[in-house]
Amino acid sequence: MTDSDQPTQPVGEPRPEPEPEQPAGRRGQIRRQEPGTTTPRPPTLGEQRARQVAQQRREELQAQDEQRQRKRRKRLLIGGGVTAGVVAAVAIWYAASRPDDVTAYCVADDDVVVEDNNCDEAYVNTSGGYLTGGFFYIGGRQYHYHYGGVPTPLGQRVTGGSTVRPKGATITTRSGTTIQRGGFGIRGTSGS
């Protein structure tokens, strides 16, 4: 075929457009929906199943998250308990090792408070007395220290406390003389 064999189209006339082909099974389209009158179509079985699977997954994730939070709370409680226990142990150790301050009262054999010099070894020796087993003897009378108790003035009986020297305590007399220094295993005596 040559160029002269092809049908010629007159100049200036448009070529006709081919018509678009419509799919065979397609019926119509919703172009506009009016609110209140249009009802949504029910979900298909596939959509319903997908929603159920998604809901189960959300519940599983929520359960895992709750379990993780319970575990974290439990660990925090255990950690807090251990911390409180350590703090309590340190406080008890400190309180136990901290030297107590005890006041020693010089008392006669009837537990009446007398002058501190009656329990001072140097004074007793210069007054013709002597010291035996923690008791001071001057002129036939016996004196000794009474540790702790309620502060009482001279001439009154001491109440509370003990005649046994407390270990690890700092012991001072009413006049301010230190008899024993305590704390952390350090013990020393001055005075008597």
How would you describe what is shown here?
- This protein has 192 residues and is α+β, with helices and mostly antiparallel strands.
- The protein has two domains: 44-97; 101-189, no CATH class.
- Helices cover 31% and strands 17% of the residues.
- It is built from two helices and seven strands.
- The protein has helices spanning 45-97, 121-126, and strands at residues 101-108, 130-132, 135-138, 141-147, 170-173, 178-181, 188-189.
- The protein has a seven-stranded mixed β-sheet.
- The longest helix is centred in the middle third of the chain and has 53 residues, at 45-97.
- It is rod-shaped.
- The relative contact order is 0.10.
- Residues 184-192 have low confidence and may be disordered.
In short:
This protein has 192 residues and is of the alpha+beta class. It is 31% helix and 17% strand. Strands 2-3-4-1-5-6-7 form a 7-stranded mixed beta sheet.
Helix content: 25-40%
Q: Which structural category fits the helices and strands?
A: alpha+beta
Say how many strands there are.
7
The helix/strand series, from N terminus to C terminus, equals HEHEEEEEE
Strand content: 15-25%
Arrangement of strands in the largest sheet: 2-3-4-1-5-6-7
Would you identify the regions where 5 or more consecutive residues have pLDDT less than 50?
184-192
Radius of gyration: 52 Å
User: Distance between the terminal alpha carbons, to the nearest Å?
Assistant: 145 Å
Biggest beta sheet summary: 7 strands, mixed
SSE layout and pairing:
Layout: H1 45-97, E1 101-108, H2 121-126, E2 130-132, E3 135-138, E4 141-147, E5 170-173, E6 178-181, E7 188-189
Parallel strand pairs: 1-5
Antiparallel strand pairs: 1-4, 2-3, 3-4, 5-6, 6-7
